[in-house]
Amino acid sequence: MKYISTRGNTKQIGFIDSVMMGLANDGGLLVPEKIPQISEEKLQSLSKLTYQELAFEIISYYVDGEIPEKDLKELIQKSYATFRHQEVTPVKKVKDYMYVLELFHGPTFAFKDVALQFLGNLYSYIAKKTGETINILGATSGDTGASAIEGVRGKEGIRICILHPHGKVSKVQELQMTTVNDETVLNLAIKGTFDDGQRIIKEIFADLEFKNKYHLRAINSINFARILAQTVYYFYAYFQVAGETGAKTVNFSVPTGNFGDIFAGFLAKKMGLPVGKLIVATNENNILERFIKEGIYEPGEFHSTYSPSMDIQVASNFERYLYYLLGEDSKAVSDLMNQFKSEGKIIVNEEQLRQVNEDFAAYGVAGEKCLQTIKKYYDENDYLLDPHTSCGVAAFEHCNEADEVCVTLSTAHPAKFNESIALCGIEQTYPEQIKELFDKPQYLEVVEANNDEISQKLKEHFSSVSQSI
Ligand SMILES: *Cc1c(COP(=O)(O)O)cnc(C)c1O
């Protein structure tokens, strides 16, 4: 399996090199040269596997022998042994036709753990095998940071720096990231939004001299390995729900920010999984909803919402979808991305918009609706949704037909977002692991959203302690 850039200007590379490259060197995103096709027969044989066995099968298509089977199995076992639920990502029936895929049973109580536990172990494995230095740089809207730190802390030869928007993450998210007292971890709280952080790291990664000198590696969902790990649970959920209901196709409603998680669903569908509708659920930061409805991709005004992990205007992974929408024509992708840079928007033609509407449905959930939905399911179904999952459920209600079976991805545990839960008049008890964070000291530096200042901090952090492995 070879990986190529959506913009067509990198040479073909293998799986491990693609993990290490993160953002493609030409500024595009890496995608597999060909998407593996899974036959109906093969699907049948995958349907009874445990989560870990299934992960091994799906991931193997993409690793394509670059990691010996035994090692890959071990990596997967280790990554999901940290989850509190035996099934890793269990599916819960909330009512007829409506299921929730609980992705929050990992160490930091958000779905990001599913991919980042795997990626952390993968980096550590590569570091040991090749002696490569791994300095991780990432921007977070809240959950990726904690999850990435948890995925790599204490692992030999890995250092990490995470940028988060100062004061714009939930209390628990902030505590999870900043209470880690470890000299290999640097938390920079930037005076700005997530989009500022994401833009700055993209620019730093695009400076190839700096990237190579400081051995920078990506943990954002620009890294294809994250998307890959996330396709697994679409398969897993489909098998559970199709098995239980007899449904031929299953819809998925996905709370979306950076278009990563929903892209993983798109990939699963392209591999042959009988996915029906893919419903893009957003909050008031609804660039993706507007794109799907109108064919115009243009950042709007930034809103701070009850679902802060989705407070994103520019969705990194959107370019991966654009690549398939444009018939895998990397020249056309480059042109559109250049246009986006110069004019601030992308407009697709009518035929393309028709295709977009075949691929996705979309619904942007307003704040009040998000809280009402939390209350409604708490009262009527005795199920407490976190505000992101609530957006997913509200979009399910809006976009799903009565006779279609739908799985909403539950991307976080409600305890991470008590600010929003409390507004619903609901009192929740925190899990022990979250309760104990409140007594710990925090380690972070507040900085301007400025490339030079941040580059300077990175230089200091990534050269301060020797990297011997
Ligand atoms: C990151 C995140 C999302 C958005 O996921 P994307 O892959 O960026 O679309 C949704 N909900 C929660 C809780 C998250 O942490």
UniProtKB/TrEMBL annotation:
Its cofactor is pyridoxal 5'-phosphate. It is an enzyme of class 4 (lyase). The keyword Plastid does not apply. GO terms for biological process: threonine biosynthetic process. Pathway: Amino-acid biosynthesis; L-threonine biosynthesis; L-threonine from L-aspartate: step 5/5. It catalyses: O-phospho-L-homoserine + H2O = L-threonine + phosphate. Residues 99-409 form the Tryptophan synthase beta chain-like PALP domain. It comes from the Bacteria. GO terms for molecular function: pyridoxal phosphate binding; threonine synthase activity. The modification N6-(pyridoxal phosphate)lysine is found at K112. It holds the Pfam family Thr_synth_N. Transmembrane segments: none annotated. InterPro entries: Ser/Thr_deHydtase_PyrdxlP-BS (IPR000634), Thr_synth_N (IPR029144), Thr_synth_N_sf (IPR037158), Thr_synthase-like (IPR004450), Threonine_Synthase (IPR051166), TrpB-like_PALP (IPR001926), TrpB-like_PALP_sf (IPR036052). Residues 2-80 form the Threonine synthase N-terminal domain. Its EC number is 4.2.3.1. Keywords: Amino-acid biosynthesis, Lyase, Pyridoxal phosphate, Threonine biosynthesis. NCBIfam families: thrC. Catalyzes the gamma-elimination of phosphate from L-phosphohomoserine and the beta-addition of water to produce L-threonine. Belongs to the threonine synthase family. This is Threonine synthase. It comes from Mesobacillus campisalis.
